[in-house]
């Protein structure tokens, strides 16, 4: 049976997608105050991975509860099919992003675009770059989230099987993998560039697994991490400390010196640094604390269900479409800003215009769901009028 959608998940997924769009158009004035990265160490990507894990746990874990009767493949297949869709979407977005910058270089004379966002290899070493794109070894900037998510969905069925029976064991294994990844710098290889993936799946799996376990528990009507007053205030205190770390003049530099001292004492770099690729401790805990605090506030459920939040909810319901459209719009926005760097109106107006375009696109794509909901309501009303017991 299909479960009713949780307004909080749709609302915050839509909000995070909007924040990702804003952050992916550097040079706009909204990026300096309207997104998560201005409030702490993490940005919208970490919270998006957590919510994606929650959504996956809710959507897919139910099939694994009866796998002994129905077999494993009916449970695994939808997740792997989704992973394949994400892979194809990534390839399309990569090619389209390259085309947008190539058009900007040809039509507007912006040849510098051909070396931005990791595109240099595409135009100077095309054969190897194409191999890298197809094998996910070469990922262009601002369009590199989907590969990690696709890989995680391939592994997610096995995580669900463990998580349903031994959630703590899965969490411990996930933490150990994250720690070992940062300690020994494990990563999937890049090609033809040296190095690895920007969103390292071995590290980023941790917050996805936390989300997955949360979604599995939520489907059973439980919380994976219970509401606890002490834990709430610890998480809230960490958020406040990080905010002070970012903005209090004397305090921030002192904390940075403390991290440098710990690094000098031999502490692993992913404990003391902010390297996004390896999901460092400071970024990870900030994102987890933020999600936990928000999830503990009853007012959030009420606020996210209000009518004014429908534009964000509809964007959240069409997550892949809106991420894809936002990624393409971000490349268009970067091209326009590079074309007219002195025109202050472009960065001020482009984000609102792009936001309207995303909402309209999501609304158009959501018509089938709305039509189905309206039909179900009409049928319910008709049946209740015909049935005296239902009417009573």
From TrEMBL:
It comes from the Bacteria. InterPro entries: UCP028704_OpgC. The keyword Transmembrane helix applies. Keywords: Membrane, Transmembrane, Transmembrane helix. Pfam families: OpgC_C. The chain crosses the membrane at residues 85-105, 142-162, 169-186, 198-218, 230-248, 287-308, 320-339, 345-365. This is OpgC protein. It comes from Maritimibacter alkaliphilus HTCC2654.
């Amino acid at each position: 049976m299909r479960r009713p959608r949780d307004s909080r998940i749709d609302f915050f997924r839509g909000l995070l997608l909007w924040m990702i769009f804003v952050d992916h158009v550097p040079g706009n004035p909204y990026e300096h105050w309207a997104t998560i990265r201005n409030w702490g160490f993490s940005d919208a990507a970490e919270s998006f991975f957590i919510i994606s894990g929650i959504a996956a746990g809710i959507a897919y874990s139910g099939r694994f509860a009866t796998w002994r009767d129905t077999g494993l493949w009916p449970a695994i297949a939808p997740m792997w099919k989704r992973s394949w869709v994400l892979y194809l979407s990534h390839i399309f977005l990569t090619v389209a992003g390259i085309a947008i910058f190539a058009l900007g270089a040809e039509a507007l004379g912006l040849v510098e675009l051909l070396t931005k966002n990791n595109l240099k290899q595409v135009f100077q070493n095309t054969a190897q770059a194409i191999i890298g794109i197809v094998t996910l070894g070469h990922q262009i900037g601002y369009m590199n989230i989907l590969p990690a998510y696709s890989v995680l969905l391939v592994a997610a069925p096995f995580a669900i099987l463990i998580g349903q029976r031994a959630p703590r064991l899965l969490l411990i294994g996930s933490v150990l993998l994250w720690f070992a990844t940062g300690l020994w710098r494990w990563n999937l290889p890049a090609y033809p560039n040296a190095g690895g993936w920007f969103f390292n799946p071995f590290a980023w799996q941790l917050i996805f697994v936390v989300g997955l376990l949360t979604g599995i528990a939520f489907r059973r009507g439980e919380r994976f991490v219970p509401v606890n007053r002490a834990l709430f205030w610890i998480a809230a205190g960490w958020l406040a400390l990080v905010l002070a770390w970012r903005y209090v003049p004397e305090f921030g530099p002192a904390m940075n010196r403390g991290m440098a001292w710990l690094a000098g004492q031999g502490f692993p770099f992913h404990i003391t640094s902010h390297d996004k690729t390896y999901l460092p401790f400071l970024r990870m805990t900030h994102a987890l604390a933020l999600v936990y605090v928000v999830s503990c506030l009853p007012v959030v459920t009420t606020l996210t269900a209000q009518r004014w939040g429908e534009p964000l909810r509809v964007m959240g319901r069409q997550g892949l479409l809106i991420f894809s459209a936002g990624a393409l719009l971000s490349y268009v926005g970067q091209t326009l800003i590079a074309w007219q760097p002195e025109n202050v109106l472009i960065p001020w107006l482009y984000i609102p215009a792009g936001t309207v375009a995303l909402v309209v696109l999501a609304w158009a794509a959501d018509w089938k769901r709305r039509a189905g909901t309206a039909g179900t309501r009409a049928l319910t009303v008709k049946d209740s009028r015909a049935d005296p017991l239902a009417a009573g």
